[in-house]
From TrEMBL:
GO function term, MF aspect, one: hexosyltransferase activity
Name under which the protein is recorded: Glycosyltransferase 2-like domain-containing protein
Residues of the Glycosyltransferase 2-like domain: 5-160
Organism of this sequence: Veillonella seminalis ACS-216-V-Col6b
Top-rank lineage group of the source organism: Bacteria
Annotated transmembrane regions: none
Length: 385
């Protein structure tokens, strides 16, 4: 059994893969296994892996079709033969050669199920270790035990090593989302351990600048992002974690996701998930963190919160309306007769919602997201007065 398994999913990662592997294989903690999951790469990633495996037999290559990082990590977790597990992305690095040794030494000394340090972000311009606002929790400034209920942060899981037996015995794996699969995993692992040991040392270097733009995501990636938000909101509400609940909504509010929300608002599945997401928002819990901030409609979905029953009713009407579309061509000759009928006016009301959304997108381009959503909400509310 190895001391630590380093799990690296790889999909078309040839550009930075050598740097990543050099960083891992140069660790002074020699008793490690490096599980590299080739997730259906079409570039030279597999060739690079094969060459490194010839040099260092600690590398194990797992090939699979392109199934995503969650499947890749879960498969490697099940195969790992070690005391601890950690996760590395194929374009990232360890900050020093003794990173894993330091983490492992303190985990063993303290009897910790989870042990971690600080984050460093970098790109071609330089590196950053100072974070502001809620993201200050990327860093630790002293050696100490921290209860997760005092920490309540769900980003940067790569900075930590996790006791493998704890994860496997409690079936803590990555949910099969194409986006935002790591915060729910990280949160569940922390809740299981209850506390972790923090060290005031940078333990992970995260490369910036290569992430895809959410506006370019497929609808599957976007809906999986919403599912990830939903899961973490439900977890934080269930556990009474007000700061985490607030943090997730801050993540939803990020500018890049707000624009993507507007772009995808017309999709039926997105609408359904947004209603579920909104229903999972615990306003009373949020007010423990920001007593006045959530008196106003100043975050995404808030405009629907007080009238969620109306939105659900409209969604049901939209479903019925779509089912009736196939029958309309058989009764076109009755159009003039129906034009002044109650049924026709109801139909216009039903179609009012998608028309509002389309108009809202145009309004968003001119007025911004928050103002546009308030306009849409006001018009929806006006229908029912």
């Amino acid at each position: 059994m190895s001391k630590v398994s380093v799990i690296i999913p790889i999909y078309n990662g040839e550009r930075y893969l050598k740097d990543c592997l050099d960083s891992v294989l140069s660790q002074t903690l020699r008793d490690i296994e490096v599980l590299c999951i080739n997730d259906g790469s079409t570039d030279n990633s597999l060739t690079i892996l094969d060459k490194y495996k010839e040099i260092d037999n600690r590398i194990k290559i797992i090939n699979q079709d392109n199934m995503g990082v969650a499947v890749a990590r879960n498969k490697a977790m099940a195969m790992a033969n070690s005391e601890f597990i950690c996760f590395m992305d194929a374009d990232d690095l360890y900050p020093s050669n003794d990173t894993l040794e330091i983490l492992y030494k303190h985990a063993i000394k303290q009897g910790a199920k989870i042990c971690g340090g600080s984050m460093r972000q970098f790109d071609e311009r330089g590196s950053w270790e100072n974070f502001e606002g809620v993201y200050k929790k990327y860093s630790f400034n002293e050696f100490k035990w921290i209860d997760f209920k005092d920490y309540q942060f769900n980003y940067g899981y790569q900075r930590f090593i996790f006791n493998r037996k704890m994860l496997i015995d409690n079936e803590i794996f990555f949910p099969l989302y194409k986006r935002y699969q790591d915060p729910p995993f990280f949160t569940e692992a922390m809740l299981q351990a209850k506390r972790f040991y923090a060290i005031p040392v940078v333990t992970y270097c995260y490369r910036l600048g290569h992430q895809s733009n959410p506006l370019d995501w497929s609808i599957d990636k976007f809906t999986d992002m919403i599912r990830g938000w939903l899961e973490n909101l439900e977890i934080s509400s269930r556990e009474g974690l007000a700061e985490l609940h607030y943090l997730v909504l801050n993540q939803v509010e990020d500018n890049y996701t707000a624009e993507a929300l507007v772009k995808n608002l017309e999709d039926d599945e997105v609408q359904s998930l947004l209603i579920k997401l909104n229903a999972s928002i615990d306003i009373d819990l949020l007010r423990e963190v920001a007593p006045t901030e959530y008196e106003s409609e100043n975050y995404i979905l808030r405009v629907f919160h007080d009238n969620i029953a109306v939105v659900k009713s409209l969604q049901n009407q939209l479903i019925e309306y779509n089912a009736l579309q196939d029958k309309l061509h058989d009764i076109e000759f009755r159009y003039n007769e129906m034009e002044n009928s109650v049924s026709f006016r109801c139909g216009r009301m039903i179609t009012y919602i998608p028309r509002l959304i389309r108009n809202g997108i145009r309004c968003y381009r001119d007025n911004g997201f928050a103002k546009s959503m308030n306009i849409i909400y006001t018009r929806i509310e006006r229908i029912f007065k």
